[in-house]
Here is the input.
Amino acid sequence: MQRFLLLLPLVLFTCFTAKAQLQIEYGTQIDSNFQQPSAQHVFQFQGTEGDVIAIRMRDRNSPVDACWELYDANQNRVAAKCGDGGIVELFGKKLNSTGLYTLYVIDNHQNDTGAYGLSLHKMNQPDYALTIHEGDDPIDKIASGVAMKAYAFAAQEDEEIRFQMRAADLHFESTMFITDSTGSKVASSYRKSNVYAGIDRWVAPAKGNYTLFIYDSGGNDTTEYGFTYQSLTHPTHLTPLACKEVIHTAISQLAEIHAYALHLKAGETGFIIAKASSNYLESTVNVYDADGVEKAHLKGSGTAIFTQFTNDGPEQDFLITFEDERGNDMGDYYLTVLTFSETCSDEIGCGSEEGSLDPAGVPNLYRIPVFAGGNYTFSVKEISTAIEPWVILYDASGQALASINDPVKVTISQTANSSGTWWLLVMDRGANDTGTYRLDVGGCIEQLPDWEIACDSISVQLDGQGSAVITPADLDVTLYPEGLERTAILSQMEFNCQDVGTREVMLTVTDEFGRIQSCKGRVEVVSGLTINTPACPVVFTDYAPASCQILEIEVENGSSPYQFEWSSGESTQSIQVCPEQSENFGVHVVDANGCEAAAQIYVQVAEIACDNKGKKINICHRPANDPEKENTLCVSLNAVDGHLHQGPGHEEDHLGECGVTYCSESAIQLESRSGSEATTQELLVQARIGQFSEAIVFNQLGQVLYRFTDETRLLEWFTEDQGRAQGIYYLRWADHKGNWFLTKVFR
Here is the structure.
């Protein structure tokens, strides 16, 4: 906590003459005196439209009956209040205009003289308020009875905040309230024994600036006081606690709160023990989770107080506060925490061992794996006579199964209802002595079933929405002992288009005894997006009507709209191409989920001219009733359409020579040239080594000449076999994926 002393505000002590006027400001405390029963005191202050004000007046141990009237700049009465002794006050009066306001103060019946006090306050964001921050423990003072202190602070929406104050003077009626930026009261305190006031759990209705006011309710007492500003959901001034660390510090002022943070993993249990040195200090400990929910509350004086609490939410920091219950006693105290974890405990098995409690107040924590149905005994006996053993047995969830203390020896016998890990806590009953003890454990089995985690590598394909989900069982290939209960989690279970590729995923398995093992598996994430391309795009440059092709693709297993990007620059689903030589056209597709796919379409350019002038081309006539009698015709360009559309019996007629299949997809771009420019060596050098699975060589008549299964023999035939004439041959070959390709070559 941050402690500081606050400066006292200005108090005006006045002595009036007839018709005297005194200029005052918001936040001013006035102490004055009526010297004549008919005296009237006049005060003026500058008010602004929208100001929300409070006025308090009371006699100061005199017979004066407080009475006042407030007028605006036009001498219209705004408010008035009178009494027959005691406090006369008004809160929440809103000013309707800007100007100089006049406050007339008299004795109510104008029959008494004596001292009085008067204070004027602004309730909506007063600029004279002192700024405080979360975690502050200020000391301040009310120096005049009707005075009010204002403190400005900021809060988040739904932030839960606690304020408490304690006055030094037993007659002081401690009172607090909170206003928002409009001057409206949003919270008020309760009182215990006059001097203590608290606002235990105020929830801020909105993010913004607020004002805390502190005063004596009766308006007649003065005192020094302390107060604390502690956020329960957004604490910022915390001391972190570590396992078995001993905090030895002191409460040194009124209403002081010390705040600590304890980090717990999901399902982890924390244990806290505290004790004050003085029997007067009523030790009070509160535990809150990250949402401000109270998980534990304990108090006591002259003895150690302790409790355990389990984190039933996600991994988080818990707020732990220590204070004196009524905020009036001071003194030193000790505080220690444990966590039910491997790092904060020692594993034990059957047998006997010595333990030591040192330093004082710090327990020892043990963990032991148990099997369902097993009966276990735990015995703790002092070796040093100073300690008085207190033993508590907890189950895996942090619930106490047994708690026994004795001046000399403690024995606990317990049957396990389920397999898991138990926790055994050993401490001194008074938490004030050190010494050694003997711990004996019986009933446990000799050895736990062993297992070693193993991970697989898998492949998953994204669905049409661009997502995929795996479970621990998809990666886990561990051989577990029969009947072993376990839980498994993955570092990543859901995948999307941004995860395409190989990912490393961590599998973590925890068995029923709390043993944890992890391994990494590889997950190959495959985009489900697929592209269907045209099966046989061929263009014939020698015949204009067939010199272009429409390349239209279909996309499956994706979400529209799609983005298309062709290697030729177009961005539509289909394009028209008119290549002059065979080439690949690439297309890249991105769907609405960000999944990507790419494909290449090999468009083959075929030469079918059958004269040197380019005015005739080859067509293949295949009679539908007798395909065996097909023959190649060399016809003029003007006659092509007539040959191809002669009606029934000519449905299978096609461009090009008979016996030649022009449909070809090439994974390797082989070049086709005319004349002697193309050599066999050039053709094969352009092929990638290891691409051929099978190759067939045939002539222009469609006669198969050779079949090869490797490139070397194919190369030898073209370079060494002189028995074949030079001319045009056709190479039909397959790659290792089963795709067939056709290329015209010259020899």
Confidence is low (pLDDT under 50) at residues 7-18, 664-690. Helices lie at 472-475, 640-644, 680-685, 711-720.
